[in-house]
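Hi,

Apologies if this is the wrong queue. I'm a grad student, and the batch job for NAD(P)-dependent oxidoreductase from Plastoroseomonas hellenica produced an output file that my downstream script rejects. I'm not sure whether the problem is my script or the file. Here is the sequence I used:
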Amino acid sequence: MDRIAPPARVAFIGMGVMGAAMAANIAKAGFALTVSSRTRDKAAALEAAGAAWAATPAEAARGAACVALCVPDTPDVEAVLFGPGGIAEGAAPGTVVIDFSTIAAAATADFAKRLAAKGVALLDSPVSGGPQGAIDGVLTCMVGGDAAAFAAVEAVFAAVGKTVRHLGPAGAGQVCKAGNQLIITATMQAVFEALVMGKKAGLDPAAMREALLGGSAKSFVLENHAKRWLDGKTAPGFRAELMRKDMRLAIGAARDHGMHAPVTAAAAQMMEALCNSGRGGLDVAALGLLVAELSGAAE
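Support response: The file is valid. Your script probably expects a header line. Output copied below for reference.
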């Protein structure tokens, strides 16, 4: 498979916070860019910078060597790929599709087979690093799918990511992302339980966090999520309802592979509880509010 490099045309579908930032970096890398989204206004800045607009994913895929998408959930990906006006209608044989969404691994494997029948390769590449990582082009890309297709779009990945790893066949990236979200959620739960325990014992949680950062408990979650909770910053960030969706995917992956996964189950349950408490639209660090509330330590 020929390598896809600037100035080849790349289409990007989904102009949310993550998608718009990734698309901008793809254009900065020298690729010709076509964009498409359910809401055209979200693509206005990219159009003003020279990107072409496409009304449908099929139109975006026509003439593109690579088509990327970043949408919320499994049904959204299926609709963009195979629904009326979907990518499958417009992509020519030899096109590489990169799905940056976080969705179900089993569905991803099925989507890859359906596209392969049309001569189109699908790479699943859920990402980690958040909105700032997308803006800075330093995302971690966890990739599953055909190795030759992965090699062909190396320059596209280089435009959006700093750590890019091919992990195996279709769906492998999604399994890795489920593990990523599990680790973050379970660590948040442990961190907030520890800080609330200290608070109830009369310690200053901020001072406790600083002490813990100096030892083996240091983590990204303790550095960042705990500080957001301590500072009372609940504006997302990464919304709790999206982490709930991701933890449901982790539960599904554990079930699919016959796992004994009590930590996964407990972490998923807490994310369900957080959203059911009316905090689904807040940052995931609002989990600290729920832990404090359930522990009788809410302010």
